[in-house]
Amino acid sequence: MKLLSSSDPSQVSQACAEYGITSAQFDTLYTRSRAAKDRAYCPYSRFRVGSCILTDNAQFIDGVNVENASYPVGTCAERVAIGAAVSQGHKKFKAVAVATDISPPASPCGMCRQFIREFCHLETPILMFDKDGSFVIMKLGQLLPASFGPEALPSAASLPATG
Ligand SMILES: O=c1ccn([C@H]2C[C@H](O)[C@@H](CO)O2)c(=O)[nH]1
Ligand SMILES: [Zn+2]
């Protein structure tokens, strides 16, 4: 796990080539996840999280963490972004970005990793941006090894996500 600089074009282009996204897509994921972070609703933790996901037809959809006075009811930015995307008709994603105000960057929690697993290949890049715009990039399969997914269920063939 290596911390890379998003302001170093050679580090960005090398990472993009390795993980199958364009530099333009990287820039949008970075800009949008950071901007989304400012819209987080997190009066309890004060821990702002923004997410942006890239759909397989090149749409970008944002999410923020949305907390609740009943603490366990709150949801993470990544799941909000994916829920928004699914509600807009997207079910396959090429990249997931998450931005926070800490360094090194936060990585998706276990529940989000499983949620992402439903809609992404194990090779899908997860981009994690820190407070300075430095980033770590890892494949979903690295974040969630030996995972359980929809293909394990006999009923999966009839699920919209896999159909
Ligand atoms: O990757 C993460 C980690 C945490 N959170 C949220 C959940 C909660 O609102 C706050 C503190 O855990 O940050 C996210 O949205 N995504
Ligand atoms: Zn989470």
UniProtKB/TrEMBL annotation:
Domain (CMP/dCMP-type deaminase): residue spans on this chain: 24-151
**SUPFAM superfamilies (alphabetical):** Cytidine deaminase-like
Reactions performed catalytically: cytidine + H2O + H(+) = uridine + NH4(+); 2'-deoxycytidine + H2O + H(+) = 2'-deoxyuridine + NH4(+)
Keyword Ribosomal protein tagged: no
Q: Which InterPro entries match?
A: APOBEC/CMP_deaminase_Zn-bd, CMP_dCMP_dom, Cyt/Deoxycyt_deaminase, Cyt_deam_tetra, Cytidine_deaminase-like
Residues that, per the record, bind Zn(2+): C76, C109, C112
PROSITE patterns in UniProt? CYT_DCMP_DEAMINASES_1 (PS00903), CYT_DCMP_DEAMINASES_2 (PS51747)
List all membrane-crossing ranges: none
Co-factor requirement: Zn(2+)
Does this UniProt record's set of keywords contain Zinc?
yes
Positions annotated as active site in the UniProt record = E78 (proton donor)
Which EC numbers does the record give? 3.5.4.5
GO terms of biological process kind? nucleobase-containing small molecule metabolic process; pyrimidine-containing compound metabolic process
Q: Which Gene3D superfamilies match?
A: Cytidine Deaminase, domain 2
Q: Name one GO cellular component term.
A: cytosol
Residues binding substrate, per UniProt: N65, V66, E67, N68, A69, S70, Y71
| Keyword vocabulary terms for this entry | Hydrolase, Metal-binding, Zinc
Which CDD domains does the UniProt entry name for this protein? cytidine_deaminase
This entry's Gene Ontology molecular function terms read: cytidine deaminase activity; identical protein binding; zinc ion binding
Question: Family assignment?
Answer: Belongs to the cytidine and deoxycytidylate deaminase family.
Function comment: This enzyme scavenges exogenous and endogenous cytidine and 2'-deoxycytidine for UMP synthesis.
What is the recorded name of this protein?
Answer: Cytidine deaminase
Taxonomic source organism: Oidiodendron maius (strain Zn)
